[in-house]
Design brief:
Elements (H helix, E strand, L loop, with lengths): L1 E8 L3 E2 L3 E2 L3 E11 L5 E9 L6 E2 L2 E3 L11 E2 L2 E3 L3 E6 L8 E9 L3 E10 L2
Antiparallel strand pairs: 1-12, 2-11, 3-11, 4-10, 4-12, 5-6, 5-9, 5-11, 7-8, 7-10
Length: 119
Amino acid sequence: MQKVILNAVVATTTSDGVNVENLTHLSFQLVASAISAGNGAFAIQGSNDGTNWTALAVIDNLANAITEGLTRITSKTVSANGAVFVFLDDFMKTKVIRVVLTRTTDGTFSCIMMADKIA
């Protein structure tokens, strides 16, 4: 399933919560456009009650050597036009997620989530 969490955002913002309790294999495409001098920092947060939010460490889509393992980050800064991916570990279970975008100077930003439904 696909869910657009943030769509063409031009200011610092926090998305609404998205229920993910019956989803697995969550990936997030972070998209940036119209950047000339700014950037956007994306953070994925999780909550089991929709009130108390915690920053989640997501897997960065880096080209690591096999011996380096996975790189986990709590925010991803996008400073050029284009798109990047981050992924949530399958062992990380939470009821609701949201995306926090901190925008500087300029740029338009979106976040698209892909996931599989748990049968």
